[in-house]
Amino acid sequence: MPEESIDHIDFEELNRKAISPPIATHLYTADPSAHVFNNKIYIYPSHDIDAGDAFDDLGSHFAMEDYHVFSMDDISGNVIDHGMALHVDNVKWAERQMWAPDANEKNGQYFLFFPAKDYNGIFRIGVAISDNPHGPFIPQDNPIKDSFSIDPAVFKDDDRSYYMYFGGIWGGQLQRWRTGVFNGDHPESPTAFLPKDDEPALLPYVAKMTDDLLQFDESPKEVEILDENGDLLLAGDNDRRFFEAAWLHKYNGKYYFSYSTGDTHFICYAIGENPYGPFTYKGRILNPVVGWTSHHSICEFKGKWYLFYHDSSLSKGVTHLRSVKIAEIKYNDDGTIQTLEPYGRN
If I label 9, which of 88, 215, 245, 280 is the partner at 20 to 30 A Cα–Cα? Predict the structure, then answer.
C-alpha cells in the first residue's frame, strides 16, 4: 500500500487482520535478513529512526545510523534485542545511511555486510566481523573493492561457496552505474539514467566472495530475470521488474531469487538452476504492505519456511518507521510459492 493510500485506513482494524504482529515494539526495524545459527534464528534488520529529514524519492528520510541484532529460540518465542551491533561512527569510510544489511557465518566467525554512503555520497558495501552472531561487529577500514549500490545479501551454497547479491534503483543508485563508473549528474533526480519502458530493466548483480569473505573474487555479473518467453523483463513492467532487496534461497535443488518491485510494492520471485541464474519469473510471495517500501528474507527453521518482512502499521503508516514481521510460506507441489496477503485474516 503506497503512502498516498493510507489516509482512510483504520489501523486498529488493519492490525487485527494482519497475519503477523511486529516482533519488536520498542524500536522500529526494517529490511530483515534472517539466518539460523546454532539452532537459533538471528535477524539482522536496519534500524529506522526519525531524523527529521524531508521525504523524497532519494530516500533521504531513511537516515539509519546503526544496527541491532535480534534472536529467537523459536519462531513464536521471545525476541531478544542484543543491542547495538555497529554504528556508522565506527566505520571509517562511511558517512551516513546504513541501509539494509545481511550476515553470514564461516569457520566460527560472523560477517555483517552493509551498505552506507561514503564521504562522496556514493553507496558502497562494507564488511564487519565478530566472534558472536549478535556482535558487536568490528568493521573493515575500507569498503569492498569495486562495490556499489545497496542491499547486499550473501548466500552460502551447499559446496560452501558464498555469493553476494546486491543492487537497488532510484535512491539505491544502481542506475548511476550503467557505464561502469558512477554518474553524479542530476543528483536531485532518482529516476535519471533509468532505461526507457520498452528497454530491458536494470538488473541486480552477483559476485562470488573470496575465501575470507572480505572481497569479491570476481567482477560482479548481472543477474538475468526472464519472463515466461525467456526474454528479459522490461523496465516498464513495474509489477515484475527488479527494484531492490535481492535474496537467494534454495529449495528442492532449485535456486529462488526473490526481490522487491519497489514502487509497486510486491515481493516477487524467479527460479533458476544455479546461483548465477538466469532466473525465470514465477510470481509473487507477498502482496503490498502499508508503507512505501517492501524488503524481505526467507529461511528454513525446524522444517518450515518463513518470510521475514516489514510494514509500517505500528507507526500508522509512517513510511520510514517500519516493523519486522514473520509469516510462514508454503510451496505448491510444482515448487511455486503461495502468495501471502499481509492483512488477509477475517
Answer: 245
